[in-house]
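Example S7 (structure tokens).
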């Protein structure tokens, strides 16, 4: 009896209840991953706040200091005694920037700190939301009135540095105008895996460094340089930035895997599909996976109480499968 579970995943139930998992692959992996949309696409940023210096356009070697710039942002003056309450009420329109304090001290016209005993602070506001005193929504306006805060806007001169910018802003400033900007990638442990387009390749080293700078825990960025080999399911890659250590540690659905990402195929987008298929199994089932890879199906199945027979043509897969079975203490349940 054959029951189709998904387009390219089939489950075959035999009278003796073994369960076979088969997967149809194409050389470009289109049958498994139908979309190349990055898993970590950045949200739309407030590009109106940052006007990059023209000197960074076309940069191929990252110069962080070149991105520094002073911009004018709206701010509202709040008594210190009620600061926390008002800030909470205005959180939807407050300025949100990486590494940036949104509450600052007042300054005099000469640029020095105000010496008025710190009775007031300035809350920096998002210039995309607040352009004048009339820009506040009814909810914010009512809160300001209730706390007795004047609905008046000041201009604050804010210094933005590379640390305060988002990856999309940096790359949009560097790449030629009108060309696609990518700040998305697939993450495999400490490795960020990118699929750059041809027009982005001259900037690949800079892109890799920006990804490391803006994503804690990422210490290596690679770019795929050819299509996936249809026999052994791996591909050539170039290290764009960071360390060259390709042995990744990945935890998926409560299972720990280790493997050399340069020698095996691993797609983090298949995590949900792995979990869904394994959830169909019951304790005592016999599972045969003839394309076992590093074990994303058979190790969870063994942990579920199934008897497992696993194989793979690629010796690298097979070695890491054995390693991961021992790592998860199910090596006696897998043949």
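Recovered sequence:
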């Amino acid at each position: 009896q054959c029951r189709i579970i998904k387009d390219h995943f089939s489950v075959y139930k035999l009278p003796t209840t073994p369960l076979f998992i088969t997967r149809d692959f194409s050389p470009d992996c289109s049958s498994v991953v139908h979309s190349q949309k990055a898993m970590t696409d950045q949200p739309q940023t407030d590009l109106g706040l940052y006007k990059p210096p023209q000197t960074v356009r076309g940069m191929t070697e990252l110069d962080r200091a070149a991105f520094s710039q002073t911009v004018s942002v709206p701010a509202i003056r709040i008594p210190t005694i009620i600061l926390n309450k008002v800030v909470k009420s205005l959180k939807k329109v407050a300025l949100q920037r990486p590494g940036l304090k949104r509450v600052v001290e007042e300054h005099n016209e000469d640029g020095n700190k105000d010496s008025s005993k710190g009775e007031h602070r300035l809350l920096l506001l998002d210039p995309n939301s607040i352009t004048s005193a009339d820009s506040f929504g009814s909810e914010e306006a009512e809160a300001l009135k209730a706390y007795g805060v004047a609905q008046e806007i000041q201009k604050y001169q804010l210094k933005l540095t590379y640390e305060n910018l988002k990856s999309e802003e940096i790359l949009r400033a560097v790449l030629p105008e009108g060309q696609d900007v990518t700040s998305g990638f697939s993450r495999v442990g400490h490795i960020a895996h990118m699929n750059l387009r041809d027009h982005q390749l001259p900037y690949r080293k800079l892109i890799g460094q920006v990804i490391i700078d803006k994503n804690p825990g990422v210490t290596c960025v690679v770019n795929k340089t050819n299509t996936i080999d249809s026999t052994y399911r791996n591909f050539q890659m170039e290290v764009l930035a960071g360390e060259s250590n390709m042995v990744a540690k990945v935890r998926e659905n409560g299972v720990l895997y280790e493997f050399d990402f340069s020698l095996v195929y691993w797609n983090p987008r298949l995590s949900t599909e792995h979990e869904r298929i394994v959830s169909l199994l019951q304790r005592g089932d016999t599972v045969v996976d003839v394309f076992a890879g590093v074990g994303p199906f058979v190790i969870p199945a063994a942990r579920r109480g199934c008897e497992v027979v696993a194989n793979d043509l690629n010796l690298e897969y097979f070695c890491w499968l054995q390693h991961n079975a021992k790592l998860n203490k199910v090596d006696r349940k897998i043949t």
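Notes on this example. The chain has seven helices and 15 strands.
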